[in-house]
Amino acid sequence: MALIDFDLKFQQKHPTAKLVGVDEAGRGPLAGPVCAAACYIEPDLYSHPLMQQINDSKKLTPKKREAIFNELIKLPIIYCTGFASSEQIDKLNILQATFFAMRHALTKFNGQNIYVMVDGNRLISNLKNPQEAIIKGDGTSLCIAAASIIAKVSRDRFMDIVSKQYPNYNFAEHKGYGTQSHIEAIKKYGPCKEHRKTFEPIASLYGGLFGKDF
Fold first, then answer.
1. Could you give the 3-state DSSP secondary structure of residue 157?
2. Separation CA 9–CA 92 (nearest Å)
3. Cβ neighbours of residue 63 under 8 Å, at least 6 residues apart?
């Protein structure tokens, strides 16, 4: 079933509500925030040619993601992003930090009649809006796939900025993921403020230094 068809069928079940897709980017990296995005696409836009190009962000090249993102935000969609910092991730754990970012992204829709479709197998905790978890939703639902692109591009751009602040780690290349070169840089320079101190191998390498002001 095409992504558009899925959303059309889902809309029939909830005809009076705005379908808002929610997804995140950055749960797995060793550094940087987790970013969530919430996206509503007016059904009248489903026929726009760009909708045929939208897919799970992981299935798109960085160049293609950027191109779709730049065109998508020109359309009259409604979207918002939410971030949880590396410090919040260490304090809350990655799951709760992700939910925090998702709830923040959804504040754009406060007071509106929405139905939330969230990628994955878990409902967003402490959310008052009706919601449904859609397993592999970023490859199933149009609005979730759009949210996945928005979240991924937004986070990548953040890591590009951070890379200039901390050039030793080359965040622009790996976006904070645990590549061999990134781990070697951590061993050489130690973790910076953008690193998640509770994530391995950082926790094992520097567990006794968390009181230090990195």
1. helix
2. 36
3. none
* pLDDT tens column, 185-197: 999 999 999 999 9
Q: How far apart are CA 166 and CA 112, in angstroms?
A: 41
Beta carbons within 8 Å of 43's beta carbon, 6+ residues apart = 7, 8, 11
Decide if 161 contacts 31 (C-beta within 8 A). no
Distance CA 54, CA 213 (A): 42
Q: How many CB atoms lie within 10 A of CB 37?
A: 29
Q: How many CA atoms lie within 13 A of 195 on its CB side?
A: 28
> Reading across the β-sheet that carries 78-84, which strands appear in turn?
78-84, 34-40, 18-25, 114-119, 131-134
Domains in the chain and their CATH numbers? 3-177 (3.30.420.10)
CA-wise closest residue to 33 among 81, 78, 89: 89
pLDDT at 183: 96
**Mean per-residue pLDDT, 166-186:** 97
The pLDDT of residue 46 is above 50: yes
Residue reference for tokens 């980017």: 25
Q: Supply the pLDDT for residue 199.
A: 96
Residues 6 or more apart whose Cβ sits within 8 Å of residue 115:
14, 17, 18, 19, 20, 129, 130, 131, 132
Average pLDDT in the 158-175 region? 98
